[in-house]
User: Fold this.
Amino acid sequence: MTISRSKRGLALTLGAVLLAGTALAGSDQLGPIAAPEVNEAKALLGQRLFFDKRLSGDTALSCSSCHQPDKGFADGLALSKAYPGSKGFRNTPTLINTALADNWFHDGRIGTNLNDVTREMITEDYLMNMDMRLMQERVKQDPVYVEMFKAAGYGEPSNGSIRKAIPEYLATLTSRGSPFDEGTMSEGAKRGQALFEGKAGCSVCHSGSRLTDDQAYNIGVPENPDIWSDPMRHMTYAAFAQFMGIENYMNIRRDVGAQIIRNPVDRSDVGTFNTPTLRELTYTAPYMHNGMFSSLFEVVAFYNAGGGDDVNKDARIKPLGLSFAEQKELVDFLESLSGDPLTGPEFVWQEPISTNYPAIENWRDVQN
Assistant:
């Protein structure tokens, strides 16, 4: 069996992508995305795995069920779906440019590598609820996977190789073609960039090519009441909170955020969440860690009013004094940070994933 690159539609760009634009110089300032190098065979394998529902316990979910290409690899929901029998309690973040992040999840609880993130997403009971030993056996039965793992240099399918291949695919998901990067912003967006870097002060935290410093802050985002009024969402949060050692988890009615890893004793960090990337915002509404704002204008208006009310709110979050026209220009700039949709065959597995395998001859004598 031959795996055809042209048939799969994989046309990965190797090496750094140099984009002309209006960006400022400096690693901590605004700038275009430099795409990481990838191994084509490994990324192709990771792509198929990403769209394969057999990686979840009851084959109900694939990674792409919640990270949908046409929604900027988010899902368009305020609060995410979850494994059947539970519901999510946070907004699904985009996976575009995630290979370049310093840490992951809204609370930043994993700061090692995407291999560890992949393992958590696959094995956590309210996410994909997969026993990785079972997953390995499922993949081994698929003759397409057997060939693809060999072509990728991994040998026979294994859990460790799966956790490597999916991040290799994620490294192909980098922003490209935005007006900001291409130097084609409107005049309103250019004025918005000046506000972003000046009067509005957004670039203090939204810095670098991904427009995030990967740090956690409290800006007073209101709680999403659905988390506490929907028993299935509340149950999911309670299970998560118990596992993470959150104090008094059955009685709290708020998401403590990055407090779980930053300062689990001092409650001054309750309600802190990672600065989100501002890339691809036009595809990834609603916004904030709990999906409380449905539009970018709502987000800008929230900041313009000085954020929300919270005892732990960062002291730097204060009213901005932007006029309606200035808020609109800031939105114009934020929209200019979205580029080409990553929905082509180089990003999306488009062939059926068959489970109708040929019978294995002399299967009693076959060794894994």
